[in-house]
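We now fix the convention by which a protein and its fold are recorded. Think of the row as the fold of the chain written in a discrete alphabet. Here is one such record, which you should read through line by line.
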Amino acid sequence: MSITKHMPLKLVALCVALLASVALLAGCESDEVKSAKENLNTEIERVESQMADLQSEIETAEALAQTEDAPLDETVIPSLESAISQAKTIEFTAPDTPSGLDEINAEIDNLKAIDYTADIQTLKDAEQVVNDSIAQMKQVTNPSEAFVIERLQGIEGIGDISAVTEDNDPNGQLGKSGGYTATVYFTSPLVDQSDVIGSTVIEKGTEGGGAIEVYANVDDANKRKDYLSAFDGGILSSGSHEVVGTVLVRTSDKLTASQQKELEAAIIEALTRLS
């Protein structure tokens, strides 16, 4: 028998209305909850986008770490690899959407605290250091005579500059196998030129201030440095000598040790400056 058969019509209508209202409320969310869920999704999308950018930067960095181009500073590749390893420890899993408004807002606050911008920039900075070092190495790998002269000009402690030719090369090694592809001598106001034998920059040689010897490869430059090192500390010592790329930077033995170091550093900075 139907329950409603013996109920007043008004009561039946009221019950039906109540049941409909309960069903409607059960299937609806407040505007506040809907808005909170939208904000949550927005934050999830933001973080996931940053994660995608980070992963892309990791791939770029990994490719650079495998480059066959030699950097001037050998430590920059290990530093890049360290930055890559650190970036790979970063993980993100999107949270499930809570049902309660307070829980949703709490999750939003957690997500807002996540920002991988600095991590991405750290990789970019490490990549830039590697790229700069590679560019510097290329710059001092068998550079032209004109480049060397241009970079020496204006350095404090360097006076007159002159490049050797086959006709006036004191060592007779210009352009020969294992020899230098260019040599540029310079005088220095720090050296008393009256104590130096010779009337021209090239005749005075390294004693007058120093010289830049350019070689075709690193091995040739290092062989020349090793040869000069054999005379260090003796009466035939020819001053300081340091290899940068395939270039041998030499300074006069008539300079003090501190003057040699300062002038050598200034020359290397000029030769490796990216501009």
